[in-house]
Structure formats: C-alpha cells, structure tokens
Amino acid sequence: MAASEPIAATADSVALRPPRSGLTPSSAVLIGMTLLVAFLALYPVGWLVYGSFSSAPPRQGGFLTIQNYINAASNPLIRGTFWNTIIFSFGQMVVAVAIGAGLGWIIARTNTPGRRTFELLSLIVFLIPGLLAVLAWTMLLSPSKGIINQLLMWAFGLEKAPFNIYSMGGMIFLHGVYLAPFTYLMITPSFVSIDSGLEESARMSGSGVFKTFWRITLPLTRPAILSTALFMFIIGLESFDIPQMLGAPYGIYVFVTQIYTTCCVQYPPDYGQATALSSVLLAAAAVLIYFYRRSVRQISRFETIKGKGYRVGAADIGRWRWLTFAICVVYFFFTVVLPLAIVLLGSFLRFFGKFDMEIFNRMTYENYIRVLAHPALVNGFLNSLGLAVIAGAVCVLMAAVVGFITIRTRMTGRGLLDGVAMIPVAYPATVLGIGLVWAWVGVPVPIYGTILILAVAYITRYVPIGLRTVSGGIMQISDELESASKMSGASWLYGFRRIILPLMRPTLAAAWLIMFLLFMRELSMSIILAGTGNPVASVVIFDYYSSGELPPMAAASVIMAAAMIAVVWFARSVLKISYSDLRVG
Amino acid sequence: MPDVKITGLTKRFGDVVAVDAMNLHVPEGSLTTFLGPSGCGKTTTLRMIAGLETPTEGEIAIGNEVVYRGGASIAPERRNIGMVFQSYAIWPHMTVFNNVAYPLQVRRRPRKEIRERTMQALATVRMTDLAERYPAQLSGGQQQRVAVARAIVFQPRILLFDEPLSNLDAKLREAMRIELRELQQRLGVTTLYVTHDQQEALAISDQVAVMDQGKIVQLDRPQSIYESPANKFVADFVGWTNFLRGTISDGTTVDIEGSAIRCRDTADLSRGAKAEVTVRPVDFRIGDEKRPGDNEIAGELRTSIYMGKYLICEVAIGANLVQAYADLNSNLKIGQRVMVRFQPDAVRVLKI
Ligand SMILES: Nc1ncnc2c1ncn2[C@@H]1O[C@H](COP(=O)(O)OP(=O)(O)O)[C@@H](O)[C@H]1O
Ligand SMILES: [Mg+2]
C-alpha cells in the first residue's frame, strides 16, 4: 500500500550544509530597514538642530551661532507661552484622566446598564478629529454665535454670553474631554486585571461602593493612572489643533502654536527662532517620553502573578448604577450626539449665528455644492485619501517588517532596529514638520512641495504607532506555529505564505485602518508641509475655519466624516476587522 | 526505522549551559524519555535534534546520516522528523484536515494520496469525524490528537514529543499516555519524549534519561530508575522523599544516629564512608507490630495528618525529618517517642 512508504522531504539528496556566512537575504533586509528608518527619523531632526544654530534660512549659507536661542528667549511672548503650555498641558491632563479613569471604572468594574454601548461610543469619541470638535463647540459656545450661549442669554435675559470657548478654559475643557477616551483605552487594561475578590472583600468588610473605589480600586490602578497621566501631559504639550484654533487667534499661545506662528504665519518667517524653539520642545518631549517608558516598564514589573481563584468581574453597585449610567449618557451626549447634530445642522445653513423658529425653513444644500466645487478641497480630499490608503499601507508594511524581525528572529542588530524605529515617538508633530521643511526645502529633488513630503512625514511619525499595533498580533503567533511548519517539511517561504501571513492578516488590516484614520485627520504636520501644490483635506477645512466660514466647513467635515465612516464600515464588514484588533496603546 | 546517536552535544545561551556535553543512544524503534525538572535542558535537546536550535558543540546522527556536525547542519524541514509541540501548535486558520494534510501538501503529493493518507492518520488518532472542524472548536485532547496525526502523517524517520500531555487535565493525561504508547509501538517508530512527570516517564518508556542541569544523570529502564536510583537527585525525582545521613559499617549495614540499619547493598561504598540512605514513606511504618528482619530506628513524632485510609506522620530522627505511614487505630500523641520500622529491601544507599 502506498500509504505506508516513507516519503522524503525533497527529491534531491539531503546533505550537510555549512553555516552561511556573509550577507544573507535576511540580514540584507535587516540592514536595509535599519538604514531606512534611521534616515527617516534622523535626517529631518539633524537638519532641525543644525538649523537652530544657523544664522540663515535653509540653503542660504550663514554661519553657526546661538543667536536663534537668544532671540527665542528674549521674545516678549515666550514667558506667557511657557506658562500657558504648562497650564494647558496639565489642565487638560487632569480633565482627560479624571473622565477616562471614571469611564474605565464604570465600564470595566461596575454593572452599569449599557456598558457595551458606552464602550463603543468611547471609540467613536476617540475617532472624532480635533477639527470637528472645535467646529462643533465653536458653534455651541462661541460668545457671539454659540447656540448654547444664545439660548442661555435669551432664557435668563443675560447681557453677555456666559461661556467663551476662545479661552484657556475652553482649550482645556475641549482637549481634556475629547482625549478622555484615549485615557480610558490606556487605563482600562489595569482595571480589567483587578481580581474582583479584592473589591468584594472590601465590600464584605463594610465599605460602600464609592469607598471601595476610592480605597481599593484606585490605589491598585494608581501606577497605571500616573503613567497614563504623564503620557497625556506629553500629548497636551505636543497638541496643535485645539490651541491653534481656540487660543492663537486670541493671543493665547502655547509652545507648539508659537513655533507654528513664527515659521508659518508671521511675515517674514523666522526659521531660526522656530527651529530653536523646536529643539527645546524636542528635548523636553524626549526626556518626558523617557520617564514615561520607564514608568510603563515598572508597572509591568510589579504586575503580580495571578494565583488560583483569580476572577475578573463587574461589581453590583446597586442603585448607584443609575447614577453612573446618567453620567455616561451626559458625557456621550455632549461629546458625540450634540456636536454631530450641530455640525450637521450648521452644514445646511447659509449663515451661522441666528437661531429662531424659522431656521429649518432656511436650510439649503448650497454649502455642499460650494465645497464640492472648490478645487482645493476636492484635490485635498483625493490627496488625503491617496495618502491614507497608500502611505498607510507602506507604514504598516514597514512596521510589520520591523516587528517581525524584532519579535520573531534572533538576528543580531534587531534591538538596534527596534530602537531606531521607535525614535519618532519622541517627536512632536510640529517639530518633525519644521525639521522636514529644513531638510527638504531647496533640495533639488521633487519632494518638498509635493505629496511625497506628506507621505514621508506621516510614515516617519506613525511607524512607531504601527509597530506597537502589529507587535501584539505578531507576538500572538507563537514560535511553535512556525516551527511546526518547518517540521512538516516546509521551507521558510512556504510557511510564511501559508501560516504566518494568513495569521497576521487581521492584525495588518487593523493596523492599516488605524493608519488610515490617523492620516486622514493629520493636521499638525500637514499645515506646515501642504501648500497649493499639494493640498490635503484637513488643511483646507482648517482654512475655512481661519476665514470664519463655518457652514462650508461643516459641510466639508460632514463629507469627510461620511468618507471615514464608510471606510470603517468597509473594514468591519468586508475586511472583518474586529474592534478588539484595534490596539493603539 | 533508524536509531539516534548524540555525541558531546552542548548548547550554551550566553553564560547559561542549557545542555552539557550529552551522549545518548536511542535504539531504533524504542521510546526514550527525557525526564527532569523544568529548565534542565529537555526542550533544548529536543529542538537541537529537530534542527530548530543550533548546537554549540557536538554531533547528532539519525541512522547513518549525520544531521549536525561542527556547524554544518541539515535544515529542520529536510530532516523528516515528526514533532508534537507542548502548545500543540495547531494552525488556527486551517481545518483539522488541512492541518494534518499540510506536510503532504508541502511534499506536493497527488491529491488522492493526500486525502487517503490524511484520513488514515486521522483514523489512527480517532479524529475522522472532526476533519472539517477548526481548531478553536476542539477540546485540548482533540487538539493533541491532531498534533499527533500531523506529526505521523508523512511517515517521519523519528518522532519527537515535547511535554505533549502537560496541558491536559489529570484524567485525560493518563488515558492519552496509554494511547500514545500503543500508537508508538504500533508504528514502531523511534521516539524521543520529553516530560517532567515521573509517572508518565515510567509508564511509557523503554528507557528513561533523567536530566539535571543539562546532563543525563541516569539512563536506564524505567524499573531500574525507580528501584535503583543512581543518586539523590534521581531518587528524589522518582519519589524517594526520605533521606537520612549515615556512615557505612560493612557491606550490608549502615549506622544512622547510633542504630545499625541493614540493607541489600551499600552501593560499593567502603567502610566508614558517609552515605545518604533513602526509604519511601510507604515502606516506613510506625506501629507496634514488628515483622521479622525489620530495621528499627527511634524518633519523635512531630505531626500526623489524617489521610482517610491511614495517617501520614512526620518523625524527627536526630537532625532528619522523615515521613512515615501509620495505621488509623494507632494511638499516637504529638511529641511522643515512636519506633519507625522498615525492611532491609526497602533501603537504598546513595553516594553523597
Ligand atoms: N532561547 C533561549 N535563550 C536563552 N536561554 C534559553 C533559551 N532557551 C532555553 N534557555 C535556557 O536554557 C535552559 C534549559 O531550557 P529548556 O531546554 O527549555 O528546559 P526544559 O525544557 O527542561 O524546561 C533554561 O535555563 C532556559 O532558561
Ligand atoms: Mg520544556
């Protein structure tokens, strides 16, 4: 019977093969990839630091000097900017962490009704771009046009608008509220990992729902919360959209917006000061990121081995669950429902700011027709889509190769590759944008002023995030799955095609979706690098805001949101990406 | 079926010596077990035989083919070795059928033959009915069977098992153990089997290699390992838990705490040499009744624990604390002086 004869793995005779020396294909990939990510990460920042010591703008000669730093330090704005930056970063951090930790506790540790829905909603809040949030809240809380202000003035007969979104308070509020879901995503794992027995025994010892939260749950998650808080502080430090739109026009500058103003708004631009300030900000961000990563390492070191009887579960908090339910409803009403409704309404109005019973009769499609006839917006859309799809895929591919080499091989030099690929984590987007200007302006290759510079910027900045997203997926594919393929007689390539690639597909698709969404909304770098020759949607929409054209901006935002929702829907139903694959932190 | 010869095999990870100059011969058609505590180098040895790990030194031959020598190696995919992994390593995106058919698909066999052989392998592990299932729909035991079917489907020269039963619950483990042994004997394939469970090793092996810190400390038939452990480590590992320090008096007597203890032999130790004496708790009896030839040694009762059919007592004999069995009706008080009795045949003398 044929089935009992042994069969050789290969027809040719098997022979001992001496170890390969020299450049193997895999080490060529490793070296090539290391050089590529090193170039992307270091070239622009090298120029940035050089520029900060140069007496002249890019490619215009000059000599080395520290004059730029002196100029930046003696700028009359700088003192205010410094304190604004601290107050803003800290304030929004407190708001984001308080709301995020609250949401985390409610969703992970209590039996509040509708927890699954709230979980999904927090993902939606997370996806709302800053531009859209600012637009909506301008429409709600601007002193002159804001609908809430007008309603309150009318109802209580006030002379003056009670709220002003164009203020430090407005910036802190909006930034904190919209970043809270991100905090929530970062903190939740530590809430989920608490043994419910610890809480239950506190309840049995006579402590109530909130006392248990305060005395047991919160201290257990304190390291995670503190480390998340540090991360949120860094995000605040690097944030551009909200401070630029709500603060800068009214003279409230933070570091990032002052850099932007110095290099891209004022005339003539002062590249020297901008690069000097950028270098300082970069150094601060690098130091903070270092401490952040150290704190994360410490948390994982303190994570205890879970013994038997370990149980994760939601605590029954009795009638308090209706209070927590109400808190969630209010939060999501003010972050999702109301803003989206007002933007949708605004997109159909000819003029925003007058509200009466006639408003629905004055609705018109005009704004949509106008923006769709606006060549910059249409081109910007097409460019953004192209970048998000193609550069997003390139970014994921690079992240996958780096992740695969670092996690799945034992090649020498893989640690270096990983380290180099993660460097841009420390780059504030604005700083990277300015560095890229310095690096490429006037260089006789068609990169600056084309869509390529945007692709380079996006990929450079987001490879680390892509890497973190795919790493989890790659780690889940155990080594033995690959070994089993080898033992079955398969070559590396055959196993890669039939085992590794299919298993990585969901991870890669999810990472691509994240890149798509991030690239579509990117503003901080795009606003520095995109011009008339290479417009992108976010910058064109931002320009509507600068010129005060809220209704067309609303229409463009609705179109953009619709496109993004369509892609997410496509990803969910056709590519079968599940929400749990969408890891960011 | 070929045999396996390992000569001077060494593997170092940095400063850690995982496998230390190992020599081993696995006779053809036999089942040889690596038995040892976690971290003693069992998996590393197995992976070097498989070709998944490159040895630091040494030589590995399967039959008369050298598969590793002096840096020159045959790639794992060309070694024709079937391997069952500790995690089973069943590919989650393929059906049971495709998992098992994979090695044949790799070898580009005709469709009909792939089907036949795969179904035959599945029949061998009694999984024919579940061929179209996905791994997520299988129990641990069923996944285990799929892993075995995949390892045998291409008639490998040798089979490797890395703690294949350690993820199963105790009951299933015992059933699978018998099944694997029957399968191995039916196929007659030379097999290397890794486990840290001494019962498992004793139950299924033709020969057991007990490992400690990268070295084989005893290589023997299961019965010899159990009956005549070569040293304290092996004794401890196969269930000899009572150890007493003593001095050799003559060829059949050891002096412990002033009592002369008779035994079968004294492991070729000369008079006056220090030795370690070991007796299993079951063979240690506390009670009044004295059988002919019994050794006797006095101690102080420290604790006694009710075990249903008998009591387990802890007795201090000089500086040694030992465990002994006592009848339920023996009227014992903590702190009292007791006599521990045992037959000379139950005593093993070990070199220190
Ligand atoms: N890839 C590796 N890198 C470094 N050390 C390793 C590696 N694999 C195994 N070791 C070390 O080698 C020793 C033996 O490991 P292993 O063969 O897995 O033991 P066992 O299978 O007997 O539990 C252990 O000390 C382990 O930490
Ligand atoms: Mg092991």
Features:
heterodimer; A: 585 residues; mainly alpha; MetI-like fold; 2 domains; 23 helices; globular; disordered N terminus; B: 352 residues; alpha+beta; 6-stranded mixed sheet; 5-stranded antiparallel sheet; 8 helices; binds adenosine-5'-diphosphate; binds magnesium ion
How would you explain this protein's 3D organization?
The complex is a heterodimer of chains A (585) and B (352). Chain A has 23 helices and no strands. By secondary structure, chain A is mostly helical. Chain A folds into 2 domains: 24-56 and 366-585, MetI-like (MetI-like fold, Orthogonal Bundle), CATH 1.10.3720; 66-304 and 316-364, MetI-like (MetI-like fold, Orthogonal Bundle). Residues 1-13 and 304-311 of chain A have low confidence and may be disordered. Chain B has 352 residues and is α+β, with helices and mostly antiparallel strands. Chain B contains 8 helices and 21 strands. In chain B, the strands form 4 sheets. Chain B has a 6-stranded mixed beta sheet, with helices on both faces. Chain B has a 5-stranded antiparallel beta sheet with strand order 2-1-4-5-6, with helices on one face. In chain B, strands 14-13-12-15-21 form a 5-stranded antiparallel beta sheet. In chain B, a hairpin with a 4-residue loop joins strand 17 (295-306) and strand 18. In chain B, helix 2 runs parallel beside helix 4 (140-152) and helix 3 (111-124) crosses helix 4. The longest helix of chain B has 18 residues, at 170-187. The mean pLDDT of chain B is 91. The site of adenosine-5'-diphosphate (ADP) has 11 residues of chain B, from strand 2 and helix 1.
